[in-house]
Amino acid sequence: MSGHQAMITAAAIGSAAGGQYSPRMIHRMPSIPTPRLHPARLICGAIATSLLVLSLPCAAQTPADTELWYTVSLQGEHAGWMRYREQTADDRITTEVEWSLTVSRAGTSVETRKQGRFVETTDGKPVSFWSLQDLGAMPREVQYVFGPTDVSVQVTEGGRTSNSKQPLPAGDWQTPHVAGEFTLARLRSGADRFAVNSIDILGDIEPVITTRELLNRETTLEVRGKRVRATQWKTVQSSMPTLAATEYFDPEGVLVRSEVDLGGVSIVTLLSDEQTARRIGVGPEMMLKTFVRPSKPISRPARLKKAVFDLSVDEGELSLVPTDGAQTVERSEGEAQRVRLTIDVNARPLTDVEPEGYLHASDLVTSDDEQVMELARRATRAGSKDAVHRAEAIRTFVGRYIRRKSLGVGLASAAEVARDREGDCTEHAVLTTAMLRAQGIPARIATGLVLVDEFAGQKSIFGYHMWSQGLIDGAWVDFDATLPQRFDATHIALSYSEADDAGFLADMTSLLPMMGRLKIDVVSLEY
Question: Across-strand partners of 486?
Answer without folding.
Answer: none
